[in-house]
Fold each of these.
Amino acid sequence: MRAVPPNRYIVFSFIAVAGCVIDLATKSWMFGHLGWPNTPVWWIIPEVFGFRTSENTGALFGFGQGWVWVFSALSVVAAVGIVVWLFYAGAARDWLLTIALGCVTAGISGNLYDRFGLHGLKWYPGHPDHLPGEPVYAVRDWIHVMIGTYAWPTFNIADSLLVCGAILLVWHALLYGDPGKSRNGQASAAKREG
């Protein structure tokens, strides 16, 4: 097995760190600017696209509310698995996988920061499930999109990076599912590695 080229470490690290920093900076700015909780929508395109703050104690799109520690544990396992697969198993020789998994790692890191409560938010008076002043172990969301009359679940940059990374992984699987099937597949795999 050939070693992973050094530039893959740089690209992966840059995407993972820059994506996480942008996510955390935008969350902090939006929550500082708009406040929290139950903020009105700050419309950029009226009734289509805007910003409002909310918390998510579940996963992507609000799935699994209240399972914050389960999703935190799964996130840590996924992040470790990504690094092992890319740099120990050698998947980082493929440019598309390196970029896709850099996006996924950035998304995992940004939301994991929030799930650990490192943002410092405290629950507000009147919340039905938490006492005022308890630490908030939830992901900060702020991007609000309407699809007709349907309000898409509020999301953030980390969620967007996770979705983009997943799309790139599906694209990779469709394009290069089994590069050993033909000489063309082998040539494509070698080209991607170079």
Note: The CA atoms of residues 41 and 52 lie 5 Å apart.
Amino acid sequence: MRRAHFAGKLNSAAKKIAIPILASRALYRRVTTMKATTLLMLTAAPVLAGTAPTPVPAITPAPSSYWLTPTLDIRARYEFADIDGFDPSHAFTIRERLGLKTAAWNGFSAFIEGEFTQSIVDDYSAGPTNLANANVAGVDPFDPRNSTIFDPDNNELNQLYGQYAGFDTTVKLGRQRIIYDNAAFVGNVGWRQNEQTYDALSIANKSIPGLTLNYAFVNQVNRIFGADASGFFENVPGEVHLLNASYAGIQGVTLGGYIYLMDFDEIEGWDNNTYGVSAKAKALGLTWYGELAYQEDAGAANDDEGLYAHFFAMKEFGKHALTVGIEHLDAGVQTPLATVHAFNGFADATDASRIDGSQPGLTDTYVTYAMPIFCGIKWANSVHFFGDNAISDDLGFGIDSVLTKKFDDHFTGIFKLGYHDSNDSIYRTTTRASMELNYAF
């Protein structure tokens, strides 16, 4: 009896366990059948549609770089200039830079670039009309009655150099672009259609973390007036040593120093020795910049000496920025290799006196406010107040306005307006306006 009763309970328990197991197996078989059916349908669908199944893409190695890579830089610009005492000028010019660069081979590479400028509207003077005895042969167009816009018709070799890069050092030999710091003393005058380049040996070394050492020996300066210019405005040979260093190994701080020894064959008045230091840092919510330089052999007779100083503070408010600064040149201080367009306002009224040191002292107190407006356009406005060596005599004031729109990685549009009011000082009242479109590839 007991055995039968126990067997009955065991049989009942077995049924309770077996039923879920059998149900699970049935469910498993159903799911497996559904998966197989779905997989079969997915596999057969392309065949039924008349196409073969998409193969798994093979992993292929990236193509090797080309041995020669072309470069292209085109700028079309309309510029208006009205200098007191001269007729207004209109220039519509197009400049193309076409180049080829080689791939590096064991650190060696090369680059060649031609530069070609055409004046479509040539109602302007590309030569210096404010110098009575200037020899401007070869500068076209030239009209002594017109305001100057220094963009002559020109075809020339812009850059041609061989390069070696290795051991944290880059060496270039040949015609090349050189820009140091903010281009206050050494630059390429990139605003003009025909840029300033250098026949030089240049060396850049970054062996010490945070430290960049630059040295260049220049034996000719290729100026903005073109390959055919002669006299005072042709290319200038010389023996120029440029030593520039910067150190960014301290967080938020960049320190700089430079020694520029310039000795020119044809223009002795440009000779000078300049020694300078600079510092840029972020503190108290501001960006601070300071630069101080001492120049020997300054002035037209190379018998002066003087100081150069530049200080500014910038406060950023999101995408807005306010900058307040002051730049000062003692009388006779000259910057013959500088990108002078970047200083003292876009009217360019003081450019010539900065280059040759004929200014009687120049102090520029300025305020700049930059902000975005709409459609990705950036707008910057500046005011300048000019004084002499002692910052006492009023040398006029200036106003700048610049609109910049970057359409994509290749196209950029720029509108500039610059006005300089001389207040009857040594400078001429000047108005300049320009619209341009840049394409780079």
Note: Residues 68-440 form a domain with the Porin fold (CATH 2.40.160.10).
Amino acid sequence: MLLIKLLLRIIFLVLAVVAAVLCLHVDVNIIKNGLSEVSLTEIVQESILLLIVLIHLIRARRNSVQRQCNVLIAGFFLAMLIRELDGVFDLLHHGSWVWFALLSSIVTIVYALRNPALVAKQLADYARTPSYGLMVAGLATVLIFSRLFGMSVLWHDILQDGYVRVVKNMVEEGVELFGYILCLAATVNLLHVKQTA
């Protein structure tokens, strides 16, 4: 049974990665939207972030053992979702996403830090789960690697006179989507971790 569960997790991850490349293909070759704010790739990224937030909030509600940790993680990914939805928040006022992300972060941190010792213990416990390494890898991919690898100066140097912005965007958004998939896999993996006191 353990082998079947392991195989199913591998299949899930492989299918998720294939779906990411398929999203890019649809955006660039079928819809031809140049990976705009309303591209399939962006919508999938936002959907993944929403799923991560919801899973952690459900875990926080159902079991108090890791409640503050789950709330912190949900709040962090909610701020990332708000950032991804900057185009929507720009309808209110350009750059207003910052205030919404800041508000959600403050509320989350204040809630979680009502008992700092408990939060520290829960975060330490989370760091000992297999999901932790996958989550860190996903966040490093999204927050660091995709930004550095998607730098315009790098792509100008690589493509020189053949520079086309959609190529840079495709690589950057594709790497970002892959990182979000790793974060989702880490979150889904947590569903199989028993929460004990």
Note: Residues 2-31 form the longest helix (30 residues).
